[in-house]
Automatic annotation (TrEMBL):
Belongs to the PNP/MTAP phosphorylase family. The purine nucleoside phosphorylases catalyze the phosphorolytic breakdown of the N-glycosidic bond in the beta-(deoxy)ribonucleoside molecules, with the formation of the corresponding free purine bases and pentose-1-phosphate. Gene3D superfamilies: Nucleoside phosphorylase domain. Its EC number is 2.4.2.1. This is Purine nucleoside phosphorylase. GO terms for biological process: nucleoside metabolic process. It comes from Christiangramia sabulilitoris. GO terms for cellular component: cytoplasm. One of its GO terms (molecular function) is purine-nucleoside phosphorylase activity.
Length: 270
């Protein structure tokens, strides 16, 4: 893996990528942050050695380097998922590459369905903890101990300092920012009524198909990480509606200005 990471980094440096302070992973329908980025270099995923290619039509496929709020950032415009046929190794490979470039902190966004029905569509949830139901770990491979401690402590997977900055920024800007537990499932099918009941019963506030692998690897690499979910739909097992991807994208777009504001304010403070 080390050789693959180095080859990817060498390619990115040849394309003008410098040393980022912060890495950002943009989730479904959350690309407006790029409008405020002073872009210095970019590379399509399918040109970067060993990178997977985003196959979901509403996920772009570029790695971008530039400046935002006075910080050097590297941004994943689109991410990878198990449901695209990739392994947990593939899904998290970009995090390892961003770390080798110099990333010191990681911010993650995603779209999720509310299990806690006090959370409404187009609101935001700060992830305080997570439950991994993906059926595996991105650290379960031979040689992982060459890249970091094999038995990674996960008592505080989301950085308290950055989470507190997010919460204060939300209060100051009158933005509803819930806090809760995110459950990651493989997908791509949405949950049944019984599954929504189960996920709520085991302690989930929101459910999605991403984020947890990247957060585990960030902790493995010693990178402070913080993540926010956009609530795009509700998993009410007693009144379950058929999934509408356009409605999900519309709710993500509605929440996006608040997400962008919080990310920018965090970058100002760290």
């Amino acid at each position: 893996m080390t050789d693959r990471i180095n080859e990817s980094v060498d390619y990115l440096k040849s394309k003008g990528f410098g040393t980022p302070e912060v890495g950002i992973i943009l989730g479904t329908g959350l690309g407006k942050l790029l409008e405020d980025v002073e872009i210095e270099a970019e590379a399509s995923y399918n040109h970067i050695p060993y990178f997977p290619t985003a196959t979901v039509e509403f996920h772009k496929g570029k790695l971008i380097f530039g400046s935002l709020q006075g910080k050097k950032v590297v941004i994943m415009q689109g991410r990878f998922h198990l449901y695209e046929g990739y392994s947990l190794f593939d899904v998290t490979f970009p995090v390892r590459v961003m770390k080798r470039l110099g990333m010191q902190r990681l911010l993650v966004s995603n779209a999720s369905g509310a299990l806690n029905l006090d959370f409404k569509k187009a609101e935001l949830m700060l992830i305080d903890d997570h439950i991994n139901l993906l059926g595996g770990s991105p650290l379960a491979f031979h040689g992982v101990d060459q890249l970091g401690e094999r038995f990674v402590d996960m008592s505080e997977p989301y950085n308290r300092e950055m989470n507190e900055i997010f919460e204060e920024a939300a209060r100051r800007n009158n933005i509803t920012l819930h806090k809760g537990v995110y459950i990651s499932v493989p997908g791509p099918e949405l949950e049944t009524r019984a599954e929504y009941r189960y996920l709520k019963m085991i302690g989930g506030d929101a459910v999605g198909m991403s984020t947890v692998p990247e957060v585990i690897v960030a902790n493995h690499l010693g990178i402070p990480v913080s993540a926010i979910s956009v609530i795009t739909d509700q998993g009410d097992p007693d009144n379950l509606e058929k999934v509408d991807i356009q409605d999900i994208l519309a709710n993500a777009a509605k929440a996006e200005p608040n997400m962008v504001k919080l990310f920018k304010e965090l970058l100002d403070k760290i």
